Structure formats: structure tokens, C-alpha cells
Amino acid sequence: MAPTERSMQLRIRIIGAIFVAVFLIIAARASYLQLVLAEDLSARGDQQHQRIVKLTPQRGAIYDRNGEALALSLEVKSLYANPTEIQSVSKVAERLARVLDIPEKRLRAKLSKSKRFVWIERRLSPEIAQQVENLRLAGLHFVREHKRYYPRGQVASQVVGFTGLDPKGLEGIELIYDADLQGEGGLLISERDARGRGLATAEQDIRGGVPGGSLYLTIDRTLQYIAEKELARQVKESNAVGGTVVMIEPTSGRVLAMASQPSYNPNATNRYQPGDWRNRTVSDSFEPGSIFKPFLLAGILEEGLLSPGSQIDCENGRFEVGGKVIRDHKGYGRLNLSKMLKYSSNIGFAKLGKKLERELLYQYLSDFGFGKKTGIDLPGEENGLLRKPDRWFEIDLATASFGQGVSVTPLQMVVAMGVIANGGLLMEPYLVERVVDGQGDQTYRRQPNAVRRVISESTAKTVRDMMVGVTEPGGTGTRGAVVGYKVAGKTGTAQKVDPVTGGYSVDKTVSSFIGMVPAENPAMLLLVTIDEPQDQTYGGLVAAPVFSRIAEDSLRYLDIPHTEMVAKQTLPERHMKGKTVKGKAKIFAAVVAGETSRMPDFGGMSYRQVLESMSRSGLNIKLTGSGKVIEQSPRAGDTIRYGAKIWVRFGA
């Protein structure tokens, strides 16, 4: 074979081999694309001819301990436009601007875009959505999303918090439990051609979406309303800058109510200052003053250094320590420990602090939980201030003994006092009882947690019994008494630190009252603080009456029976704007005398209206359900006899 012919055959074979190799490569690649990457490529292809808009997820609800809604996600309409379908941008913008209260210029800019999908306004109110629909303008479309709504308005607003437009939690429970509440948003899918233009025959499709989990709190809506109402009333009447109320169940650590003033409505956060959103019960600290004294007393008794009958010389109201003078509001001679607490002698407690000494006093205060966070499931909790004992001078030991030179949050104070209320255990406070996922299955349930034993049961009972004297005649907290119950309480009036001088202010104070009721077996523990009250500043005059009113209404609501005989002469007087009021005395005296009254007509009333009626009349009414009153017993106008069960049921 000639060389030229052999060369040609070789080239043919090489070219044939190349063709075969290329074919095999193409076949392998095609097989790979068809068999291995088919699903991924199909999805990518869909994406290229689909426009996908992520919708707002359906956030889980927040309920109180009785299942009453405090936060809900409602289905609402969001408005978007397809500018290519709009014939007259100016006309549509002009008519929309009047309904949506959006500048016409901004609407024209949106409607003039070359896009096929432009958000106009999301989560419209039903009224506004209906007005837009009535315009019947081409190119405008609706899609259903979810909007956060707080049906109780300001009730528990600083506990529940609120969300942003995302919607992600920004404050309170909404923030801390955002991961549990946040659902998965659905997808709005619309078809488009290769150039990205919407297809005229295509319809929008909403896919996916998983609702978030729901929370059940320890908060009781009714107790919360009572606390907020009475706190707001006192802050207003005393021209104070603010105040707090914390109510817990001392045996478990459950928070039943938590109120702060000023407050806000989470449905309209933009109308309030950011400071109003703050939950002052955990974020603000104050010098407790005399409400601190029971903890020192507990340490003295636990160590066996003195007994309730032991006497201390109170130096007739003036006592010098470390070059500084300590004074009492009144000169006392020798007092036993019970009377020292009842009359709130600073000098007597300064001497008790010296008996316990720095290290031991610090250890007890630390064991009660001061100087560190309680662990409550809320954002922004402060530690308070409890300095190490090696930094205490003689005067520091004395002042710490009656609540100066230390700072606490209202929640810390209540949790610490819970040790005395429940028999010696420090309980961890909490707000969320259980979590239920979007399918209704319980995923979490909180159990009460005892952090440690601080004092013995006998010491706790002894201190509790001594605190009862504070609300009895002659004590500093008589206006904290509650008809028909023994109250173990303590008043406090603490000067605030002046940020300019660094010393104590001469005219700014925090007035407080802390108490537990019934004292024999406390069902509730309650702290009231009033920040910078004017005119009257003593805790026994400003905060104690608030405690009394809240406790009275709460005990009635919880249907806790009286532990004491109700007699007219034992009823405390109520002082309001210089007048003495004995209205409650007349009501209860009439009940004791066997007199009867008639059942009001509650038909169609709201929860709040019934509570206000209860407060005015003194009736002990059991409330169930939500909405408006649909049923009551006895019937309107029927006679109410002493001891009879009275109830009202609400419904939609």
C-alpha cells in the first residue's frame, strides 16, 4: 500500500475515533443531565419562567393562662400592582392616594416601573381594602397575608411586646420566643415568559406556608387588667413619673401580672415613645429602702443570733456610724424585733446588720438572689447592684441593712420575698407555661424550679408573722390591709440618687409596698412601686393603698375565701384627694348583717365594664369566657344572698 493511501486511512481512523469519543462524551453528558440533574434543572427552569414573592408567615398566637388571646395573626389583604395593565398611571395614582393616604408622587413612581409586580401597600385594614376594591382599577391585585394584632390593646403590652413588618419580634415575649412563634411564609408564584413578562393567561399561585407555634403564658388577663388599672390611677393621682406592679404565685414562681407605667398600645407603637415600650419591672433598678429589712431579719433569725422578742436600743431616733448620722422618722427607745419591723426603725436594723456582719449579710442577700438576674424569660433584665463586702465601710454595712447602697429590680424584689412567702425556697420566675406547635402538638411545658433553699420553713413563717404587724394598727402599712384577710407586708420610701451631685435627692423618691396574702398561706405576692410621687411620698400612703385595691379585687376574682371575720370596725379607711371614704365598709357591714342586694343587668357588657362594676359594688363575681356577657346568675334584678355563687359568662 502506497504511503499516501496509508496516511489517508490513518487520518480516517483518527477522525472516526474522535467522532466516537465526542459521541460518547455527549451521550454521557446527556445521560448525566437526564438522570442525575433532571430534578435540579427542572426547578431552575421553573424559576426562570416564574416570579416568586415570599409572603408574611402566619405567626403563632400568644394566650394567657386561661386561653384568652393576647396576640393573634389575622388574615388580611396586601395590595400589589401590575403596571403593564394600567392605562393611566396618573388617574390610578390620584385615586389610590386619597384612599391609602400615600403621596401621589410616590404612587406614580411605583406604578411607572417596567416591572410586572410592585408592592403598593401590605397588610391593609379590612375597611381600606374594601375601599380599594370599590375603586375597580385595572392593574391592582390583592394577595392574602397575615398581620399581628393585639386584641387586648395595652393589657400586658410590655410583657407580650410587638413585632416589626417582617414580622420578627422586637420586644417582650415576641422577641425572646421569636423562633417558636415564627412560622414559614408561603410563596406567591406567577408565570412569566423568557423576557420576564407576565403571561396574560397565567394565574397567581400561593404555595407552602407553615403556621408558627403558640404560647400559653402564666399571666392572667383579668389580674393583669386589675394591676394596670390601679397602677395607672395612682401614678396619675400622685403626679408620678412612673410605677410598676409585679404579682407572682410564690409557691411556683409563676408571674400572674406584670405592669409598668407609662404604657403603650402595641397595635400603634408609632404613637408612643420608645421608653414607653420598656418593661420597667425587669429593666429598671432602684434602691429598695425599708422593704429590704425582712431579708436581714431572716438572716438574724436563721443564724439564731436573736429572737423576735429580743430588744434593741433604737437610740431615740439618732445614731452615729462611721462619722455619719442615721435617723428614724420618730424617736424610739428599746424595741423588740417585731416592733422594729412594724415601726421600720433604721437604727435598729443598722445594729442588726452589725450583728450579722459583712460577709454573712452579703451571703444571705446573694442567696436571696440580689446582684444577679432572676432568669425570667424576658429581654433587657438588669442585675441590680450588690457590691462585694470587702468594699463596704462601716456606714455601708449600716445603710445596706435598711436598703440603701444596693439596687434591685422590682422582679428581683418579688422573687426574693417569695422565699419568705413559700417557706424558704428561691423559685425561678417564668412567664411561658407551654408551647404548642402549628399542628397543635405540645412541644414544651415548663415546670416550677426551686433554685435553692435559703432559709428554713420556721424562719420564713416567723418573719411572715412579724410582717403582719406592719399592716395592723400602729404599723407603717395599715393602708395595705385587705378586708377579711391577714396581710404580711412592708412599706418602703427610698431617696433616689441625684445623677448631678452623686448624692441623694432631697425631693425625688421611690415609694413602695410589698405584701403577701393570705399571710397564713400566701396565694399571691405583690409589689407596688411609685416613682417620684408628688406631695405625699411615704410608701404607706402612696403604694400601700394600691396594693390593697389590687389584692382585694384579685382575691375576689380568684374566689379565695376570707381567713378573718369581717367586721365594720376593722375596715381601713381609704384616703382620696384629702377625703376619707368608707364605702367598702358599708358594703361589707351590710353583708355581715345578712342584708341582701339585687343582681345588676350585665347583659352585653364587656369584660372591662363588668370588672368596673365589681369594683364599685364589691360583688364577688366569677368570670368565664371572652367577648360580651351572654349569661349570668342570678338573673338581672334577682336577690343576691350572702354566700351565694355569682357568675357571669362571656361569649362571641
Protein model, in words:
With 652 residues, the protein is an alpha+beta fold. It has three domains: 52-217, Penicillin-binding protein 2a (Domain 2) (Alpha-Beta Complex), CATH 3.90.1310.10; 221-264 and 281-564, DD-peptidase/beta-lactamase superfamily (Beta-lactamase), CATH 3.40.710; 596-652, 2-Layer Sandwich (Trypsin Inhibitor V, Chain A), CATH 3.30.10. The protein contains 22 helices and 28 strands. Strands 2, 3, 4, 5, 8, 16 and 17 form a seven-stranded mixed beta sheet that branches. Strands 10-9-21-20-19 form a five-stranded antiparallel beta sheet, sandwiched between helices. The chain has a three-stranded antiparallel beta sheet with strand order 1-6-7. Strand 2 (62-63) and strand 3 form a beta hairpin. Helix 3 crosses helix 4, helix 3 packs antiparallel against helix 5 (126-135) and helix 9 runs antiparallel to helix 20 (544-558). The protein starts with a helix and ends with a strand. Mean pLDDT is 85; it is low at 193-203 and 568-596.
Number of domains: 3
**How would a textbook summarize the main sheet?**
7 strands, mixed
Distance between the termini: 105 Å
Work out the number of β strands: 28
Strand content: 15-25%
